[in-house]
Amino acid sequence: MKFQRYGAVAGVAVAASLALSACGSNNNAPTGPTSSASGTSAASSCPSGTLSLAGSTAQANAISQWKKDYQTKCTGVTVNYNANGSGAGVTSFIQKQADFAGSDYSLSTTQAAQVTSAGRCGSGSAVNIPLVPGAIAVVFNVPNVTTLNLSATTLAGIFNGTISNWDAAAIKAENPSANLPNLAIQPFYRSDTSGTSYNFSNYLHALGGFAAANKQWPGKAGQGAKGSSLVASKVKSTAGAIGYAEYSYATEDSLSYAAVSNASGAYVPLTQTNAANFIAKAKVTQSGSDTKLAFDYTYAAADAYPATLVTYEIVCGTGNDSGQLPLIKGFLTYMDSSAAQTELTSEGYVPLPSAIQADNATAIASLQ
Amino acid sequence: MSLTHTSPVRKAKNSVAWVLVAIAFVVAIIPLVSILWTVISRGAAAFNANFLTHSMRNVSEQDANGGAYHAILGTLEQVGIAAVITIPLALMVAIYLVEYGRGRLAQAVTFFVDVMMGLPSIVAGLFVLSFWILGLGFHASGFAASIALTILMLPIAVRSSEEMLKLVSPALREASYALGVSKWRTITKVVLPTALPGIVTGMMLGIARIVGETAPVLLLVGVTDSINANPFSNAQGSLPLFIFSESQNSVQTAINRGWAAALTLIILVMLLNLIARLIAWWKAPAAAR
Amino acid sequence: MSTDRPGPAVTEAQDEKPPTPARAGLNAKAGLGDRLFGGSARGAAVFILILMAAIAAFLIVQSVHAISADKVNFLTSFTWDPDGNTTNGVPTFGIAAIAWGTLITSVIGVLFGAPVAIGVALFITQYAPRKLGAILGYIVDLLAAVPSVVYGLWGLLVLVPHMGGISKLIEDVLGWIPMFKTNGTYGSSIFTAGVVLAIMILPIIAAIAREIYRQTPREQIEAAYALGATRWEVIRLAVLPYGRSGVTSAVILGFGRALGETIAVAMVLTQVPGLVTRILQPGGNTIAANIAVQFGEALTTGRQALIASGLILFLMTLIVNYAARLVVRRTGRAGA
Q: Which of B42, B148, B170, B199 could form a disulfide with B128 if both were Cys (CB 3.0 to 4.6 A apart)?
């Protein structure tokens, strides 16, 4: 009966696949900057298991580096980060698909209500823990132009389609010495619900007469792309494009970015120090383990870059899954540590002000 | 039309037709060759032993190392589970439709199988997402993807097995019955072995198709860059998904990896197709082609 | 979306009667083996029936939830905001814009793909020498197996940057028609997505057409040659009429394939809201791509709305598949 022959073939296939599953390796020798944290904390306090995270693309590059360090330190941990955007991240969190989520805007009342009605945190609620401050780079791709000054009003016009060419009078007025070509402007925005969209539209609303802040980009012109990575990619490959993404994407893709105007109309170039100066002036509201930052767009120092954001980790204050709790606390503690925060600078972010860092440490320790 | 004389008009029409067909051929070949050429040439840059045997754990997008092993393993496991579920089930249903069913059940099954053939793969993914993951509370896993792949493969497998079983000459069956062999023995010892090469070919082609399915996997398998050999718990890699996510980057190292993964996937699909055709060719006498 | 393999599935009429099973054995009483085996076969059939019916029922129920929660007309609204992100929590969604996108990209795909595919099939069967034809046939079959994500990758990274020239040319010639106007930007447009779809369905249509043309009765071809026909006249008089219904069916199947294509289109198109009528300008959306982009952040209503749109897409492919089957059935066989 031919089944014997097919059985032999099947047996070989099974053996081959078993061998195949043994011959792959997770061991990738690090080529990037390694954290100095590996030696400092006690390795014996490492949890083990798989941590499933989701959320903001703005913090994705920071998480990518922190994952590397934490997984090297604690080899029994696998951290999975699904950078599906702030909105999708919170949705994943509410649906219990993520242990905690990264979101560039704190939980809205609607979302908090959903957390309660879904019973996500048992009888408790979720808290916001700010951990990744960063700057929003207005990236552009104009041939032969590497720096630009763009006021909030001009940006609002560009993203609403009222200014549609790079040699428009408004842009020329702000950049008299730039060699602006006759090239159609192609704005790119985030098609998904994005914290970056929320913070950038917040800035444009405060200083540029743009529509009110919305995580669903309210601009009237341009094309949508899903995720900061794709926005940066589209800007890079399209002549005349302009978009917005966290600063680390601008450096990673070698994109030019603009200096934007502050409340007094002066142009502030994007540097991490400038962003830090602006973030330091944010109003901090704390209640229990929950910490929220509200940016003060009226702050008009010449060295404070106003288009910034902070990524919060949305995590249950109480009611976390007991099996996952050590992993959650372990990684959050690492993210809040000085070693990790110092590393943020080299990744294109802004370290947390130390006061907030201290508050976070208390909040994280009290998670249940 | 004259038997001996071809008018210049007819000659001209003939030439024009030949030119048009040749142009059509060239127009078709250019993009297809371009795709294969691009995949091979750009994929070769990152396609090496390290790529095939390492995952992306602890590798950033800008790093040049890292590989697709976690994705290859994930895809093989997801497709493997789907095949293990689909093949016996589809076979039994096909046997029922051809050997047993005459009445309403057979008609209903045939109707639904035909209907499900048209199910878009993304809708199958949505179904499993809503029902299995969000409805029943499971998490993203390789097995969730396997369920969707099973749903997609079942109608094709049932149809092709049915066709192969129908091709078996009735005389063979009658001879077996005439010898007093029971029905189930006739099916398993006469009909199935005769139709088996065609069935195996059909199954392999079905598997080759679901290997490349990205849409359901995108919704169901989660995101991870480490090796997860357990398809039942936690996110697992997937080769088509790996290609998709690397393509969303603009860093050259990520794009290179995307092309290399595309090359890997094409090789895998081609291998499965070739094996299917080899089996068909090797066992040619059995099929009534 | 599934495809039909070339071969008996198309060249035979679909409702040909299965061989009459001989009554089992001399002994009419079924043994235990027979009962068990027959029972398992029947059980498998019942299981699959329940499974498929349950899937259909689940999808329909979820869709009904969504549509009844929709505050605007599901079939005519251009907005997609089922979770109310911009409408203050009010579910506002309709499939008009995305269904249009699905249809127009698939129509472009078939418009470009079908004639080229038929040309390729004719070339392989009527013009190329036998051996070359066989090799080319193999290549076309293998190309039908390339996964759509690879087409998407190529479309995004190779085709989109190069579509500017052709798009501008079309705009220059046909720009007086509003559909072909642009605002000066090209690339990730509905037209490009349609071209990618054309390339994807080309091997599928060509493979089936090749099979059909290959089976044109030799007598008819030889009779035409004997009457002094040129090669083109032979094709026109013998080959094309014979394959007309089968190839039409193949083209319709290719159209159905294009309708359900998700990933290649999602990778090529950038999103713009509302109805997109300018097919050369970047931006667009299809039902399938919309699902792929929105599923992550969709809350309950959002997901149910996506399922409703998926069901509409399913209906579209069902109608198309049925039409393909009808075309073949009416003539009794694949040949005219």
A: B148
C66 lies in some domain: no
For residue C57, being part of any structural domain is answered with no
Yes or no, beta carbons of A237 and C299 under 8 Å apart: no
Domain encompassing residue C12:
1-30
- CATH of the structural domain B49-288, one choice from 1.10.1040.10, 1.10.1740.10, 3.40.225.10, 1.10.3720.10: 1.10.3720.10
Task: Give the residue from chain B lying closest to A2, CA to CA.
Answer: B193
- Residue C267 belongs to some domain of the structure: yes
Dihedral (CA of B145, B147, B150, B155) sign: negative
Q: Are residues C164 and C25 in the same domain?
A: no
C16 and C149 fall within a common domain:
no
Query: 3-state SS of chain A?
Result: CCHHHHHHHHHHHHHHHHHHHHCCECCCCCCCCCCHHHHCCCHHHCCCEEEEEEECCCCHHHHHHHHHHHHHHCCCEEEEEECCCHHHHHHHHHCCCCCEEEECCCCCHHHHHHHHHCCCCCCCCEEEEEEEEEEEEEEEEECCECCCEECHHHHHHHHHCCCCECCCHHHHHHCCCCCCCCCECEEEEECCCCHHHHHHHHHHHHHHCCCCCCCCCCCCCCEEECCHHHHHHHHHHCCCEEEEEEHHHHHHCCCEECEEECCCCCEECCCHHHHHHHHHCCEEEEECCEEEEECCCCCCCCCCCCCEEEEEEEEECCCCCCCCHHHHHHHHHHHHCHHHHHHHHHHCCCCCCHHHHHHHHHHHHCCC
Q: Which of A91, A97, A229, A230 to mutate to test the interface with C (most CBs of C within 10 A)?
A: A91
CATH number assigned to the domain comprising residue C148: 1.10.3720.10
ipTM here: 0.88
CA-based nearest residue in chain B for residue C206: B28
- Do both C128 and C266 map to the same domain? yes
pLDDT (mean) for B184-200: 89
Please give the model's pTM, rounded to 2 decimal places.
Answer: 0.89
Using a CB-CB cut-off of 8 Å, the residues of chain B touching C63 are none
Is C255 found in the same domain as C130?
yes
In a domain, residue C65? The reply is no
Domain count, chain C: 2
pLDDT tens, chain C, 336 aa long: 444 444 444 444 445 555 555 555 445 556 888 888 988 999 999 999 999 999 999 999 999 999 999 999 999 999 999 988 888 888 999 999 999 999 999 999 999 999 999 999 999 998 889 898 888 888 887 778 889 999 999 999 999 988 888 898 999 999 889 889 888 888 899 999 999 999 999 998 998 899 899 888 889 889 988 988 888 989 988 899 988 888 998 999 899 999 999 999 999 999 888 899 999 999 999 999 999 989 988 988 999 999 999 999 999 999 998 888 888 877 655 444
CB contact under 8 A, B116 and C152: no
Which chains sit next to B, with 3 or more Cβ pairs under 8 A? A, C
C33 to chain B: nearest residue by CA?
B184
Is there a single domain that holds both residue C23 and residue C97? no
Q: Quick one: tokens of B1?
A: 């039309």
Q: Touching check for A123 and chain B: CB below 8 Å?
A: no
